[in-house]
Design brief:
- By secondary structure, the chain is an alpha/beta fold.
- It has a domain at 1-81.
- The chain is built from five helices and seven strands, in the order H-H-H-E-E-E-H-E-E-H-E-E.
- A four-stranded parallel sheet has the order 3-5-6-7. A three-stranded parallel sheet has the order 1-2-4, covered by helices on one side.
- 17% of the residues are buried.
- InterPro entries: LRR_5, LRR_dom_sf.
Length: 157
């Protein structure tokens, strides 16, 4: 069985570094142009590697310190690192997507005790010392609860 063009694109989505993409295209002639097929960046990019992915329309930001490009071809951004619920709301207004949303203590103080379904984690100390809290509904989307999130919530049952 041979890998076709579509299959190699799927496999190369899991490459971790630009050299893997370069080696694939240089090593196997029929896979030249693989990087041009991507409409999103499967790895963080720098000034050099950005040029190798010319057709990106959705720019993925994997870490907070990733270099971000706004070269006129980018339609939207997808943020993969953890952001607060407040930041998520701002990004959503701009048409961007956040994949890892944390409800922080500041968010709770601003938006209240209802955890929205978009939230994936509750931050450290989010509800700490909230002694009047008696019940809370945690959506199934929440997969992580931070340290001391509910400590000293003496009325919580």
């Amino acid at each position: 069985m041979q890998l076709g063009y579509n299959e190699i694109m799927i496999v190369s989505k899991y490459f971790e570094d630009i050299n893997d993409f370069i080696n694939l295209e240089m090593g196997v002639k029929r896979f030249q142009g693989n990087m041009e097929q991507f409409h999103f960046n499967p790895i963080p990019l720098n000034e050099y590697s950005r040029k190798l992915f010319p057709n990106i329309e959705t720019f993925c930001i994997y870490k907070e310190d990733d270099e971000i490009f706004d070269d006129g071809r980018i339609i939207k951004y997808v943020i993969w690192y953890k952001v607060s619920y407040s930041r998520y709301l701002k990004e959503k207004e701009e048409g961007n997507i956040c994949k890892n949303i944390e409800y922080t203590q500041e968010d709770r103080e601003k938006y209240g005790n209802t955890i929205q379904k978009e939230v994936n984690s509750l931050g450290n100390y989010c509800f700490k010392e909230f002694s009047s809290l008696t019940t809370i509904n945690i959506p199934t989307s929440v997969i992580e609860i931070g340290d001391d999130c509910f400590s000293w919530c003496s009325s919580l049952t």
